[in-house]
Amino acid sequence: MKKPVLTLMLSLGMSALVMAGETGPLVTAESLPRLPQRLVEMLLAAVGGPEWLVQLGGMAAAAGTVVGVFLGAFALLSLIERKVLARVQNRLGPNRAGWFGILQPVADGIKMLTKEDIVPAKAEALLHFLAPVLIVVPAVLALGVIPYGREWVPVNLDLGLVLFFAVGAMTEVAIFMAGWSSGSKFPMLGAMRAISQMVSYELPLMLAALAVVMMAGTVSLSGIVDDQGGFVLGFIPKWNILTPWGLVAGLVFLIAGVAESNRTPFDLPEGESEIVAGHMTEYSGFKYALFFMGEYLGLFAISGLGITLFLGGWQAPLPGLGFVPTWIWFFGKLAAVIFFFLWIRATYPRVRIDQLMRFAWLFLIPVGLLTLPVAAVWHYTGRGLLGWVLCGAMLVVPYAILTVLYNRRMAPATRRYQFVE
User: Fold this and answer.
1) Cα dihedral 270→273→279→281 (10° resolution)
2) What are the contacts of 213-219 at 24+ separation with CB within 8 A?
3) Does one domain contain both 292 and 369?
4) 191 with 239, same domain?
5) In DSSP terms, which residues pair with 152 in a beta bridge?
6) Are 338 and 377 members of one domain?
7) Which residue range is the domain that position 73 belongs to?
8) CB-hemisphere CA count at 13 Å for 339?
9) Per the domain annotation, does 23 fall within a domain?
10) Among 20, 43, 164, 376, who pairs with 26 as Cys (CB 3.0-4.6 Å)?
11) From CA 105, how far away is CA 164, in angstroms rounded?
12) Which regions of the chain are under pLDDT 50?
C-alpha cells in the first residue's frame, strides 16, 4: 500500500533537513528571512527536480516571503498611521475592533471584501478592472530588488536601480487607465493631475539617485550598499547622507518621494475639495482597497530605496554592532523613515497644484542638477576638509540665489478671492 502524499512530503522534507544539517546549519539569525526559499529549494532537489525548477521554486518562495512581509506591514501601518494621527490630534483613534483596536485592519479588510462592487454604465469594464491590479504590481516588483540584508536580496540584479525606476513608470499608465476607463470627468481630471505630478517629481528623484550612481560607480543596489560600508574616524558611518552632496541629494529625494508616494502635503490627486477622490472616484469595494494597498506598498518601496541610496541600507550605524542581523537594521531604518512620513502628514497642510508644479520645475530640479557637479568635486578633492569647504560653497551660494529668485520673482503672486455677497 502506498504512503499518503502528506507522509511522503514530510519524509522528503526530513531528508532535506538531514542533508542540510550535514553540510551546515539550516538557518542562522542572519539568514532567517531566506528560510522559506532554502526549504523549497531543498525539497525540490530532494524529489529530483531539474535545476531550472529548483531555481524557479526558490525565486517564487523568495517573492512570496517579500509579499507576505509587506502585506502584513501594510495592514499594520494602516492601523499605526491612524493611531499616530489620533495621538497628534489628541484623540483615541481606532479602539473598538479587538484589544485597543488591534483588529481594525481585519475589520477593514472584511468591509472592503463585502462591499458592493459598482461599475459605472459608461465605464470600460476590462480596463476599469485592470487599473487597480496594475497599481499594485509595480510596487511589488520594485520591492523585489531591494537588498534587505547581507544575505537577503530577493532578486539581486546588476541593473536593480534601473529596474526600480522602469517598473515605477507603470504606475502612471495604471492611473491613466483608472481615470479614462471610469467614463467620468472627475476621475479623468484627477488622473491628469496625478500623472503631471508624478512625471514632474520623478525627475528630481532620478537626479538624486544619479548622484549616488556616480559616486558608487554601479547601478546595482547591493553594490551601492557595499560602497557605504565602513566608518570614517572609526565611528562615523560612510553613508551618503553624511556628505555635503548626499545631504542635499537626500533632501531632494525625500521631498520628491513624498510627492511620488502621494502623501501629504502633496496628496493632490485626492483633492477632495476639488475633484472628489481623483482617479479613484468611481471605484468601490476591494478595487478601492487595492489603490490604497498600492499606495502603501509604493511608500515602502520609495522608503526602502532611499535607505539603500543614502542611509547605508542594511549597514550598522555604529561599529561593534555586527552581531545584530543586518535585516533588523534595515527594517529599523524603514520604521524610522515611515514614522517621519506620518509626522509630515500630521504637521503640514496640503499645497495648491500650481505651487506644487512650480516648486518641482523652478527649484527642486535645479537643486537636483546641482548635486551632480558637487558630487564630482567631492570625489576629486579627496573627500576631506577641502571637499567640505568647496562643496559647501557650491551648494550654499546657488541655493541662496534660487531661493531669492523663487520667492521674489517666480513664486505665484498673492491671490485675491472674490465672493458673491
Assistant:
1) 120
2) 213/161, 214/372, 214/375, 214/376, 214/379, 215/240, 215/245, 215/375, 215/378, 215/379, 218/158, 219/158, 219/159, 219/160, 219/161, 219/162
3) yes
4) yes
5) 149
6) yes
7) 31-98
8) 9
9) no
10) 20
11) 29
12) 1-3, 5-6, 8-10, 12-14, 16-23
Q: How far is CA 262 from the centre of its chain?
A: 11
Q: Work out the number of other CB atoms within 10 angstroms of the CB of residue 57.
A: 18
- Please say which residue of 98, 123, 149 terminates a domain: 98
DSSP structure string for 204-238: HHHHHHHHHHHHHT---HHHHHHHT-SEETTTEE-
pLDDT digits (tens, 9 = 90+) for 244-274: 999 999 999 999 999 988 888 888 766 655 6
Indicate whether 2 belongs to any domain: no
107 lies in a domain? no
Identify whether residues 262 and 194 lie together within a single domain.
Answer: yes
Q: Are 346 and 85 in contact (CB under 8 A)?
A: yes
C-alpha cell read off for 256: 520628491
Question: Does 131 lie in the same domain as 39?
Answer: no
3-state secondary structure of 109: helix
Same-domain check for residues 75 and 130:
no
8 A C-beta contact, residue 250 and residue 208: yes
Cell readout for 168 is 515605477
* Cβ pair 30, 150 in contact under 8 A: yes
Among candidates 153, 181, 149, 138, which has minimal Cα distance to 59?
A: 153
Provide the number of structural domains found in the chain: 2
Cell 547622507 locates to: 241
Kindly report whether the global pTM for this prediction surpasses the value 0.85: yes
Nearest-angstrom CA–CA distance, 152 and 143: 12
- Give domain status of residue 20, yes or no: no
Q: Transcribe 355-413 into DSSP letters.
A: HHHHHIIIIIHHHHHHHHHHHHHHHHTTSSHHHHHHHHHHHHHHHHHHHHHIIIIISPP
pLDDT of 12 reads 47
194 and 52 fall within a common domain: no
What phi-psi label fits residue 233: left (phi over 0), alpha (psi between -120 and 50 degrees) or beta?
A: left
Q: Kindly list the distances between the CA atom of residue 98 and the CA atoms of 103, 106, 245, in Å, as whole numbers in the listed order.
A: 5, 10, 48
Is residue 152 helix, strand or coil?
A: strand
* Domain C-terminal end among 98, 127, 156: 98
Q: Rounded distance, CA 70 to CA 81, Å?
A: 15
Amino acid at the residue 199: V
For residue 22, the model assigns a pLDDT of 46
How long is the chain? 421
Three-state SS for 149? strand
- Are 45 and 121 members of one domain? no
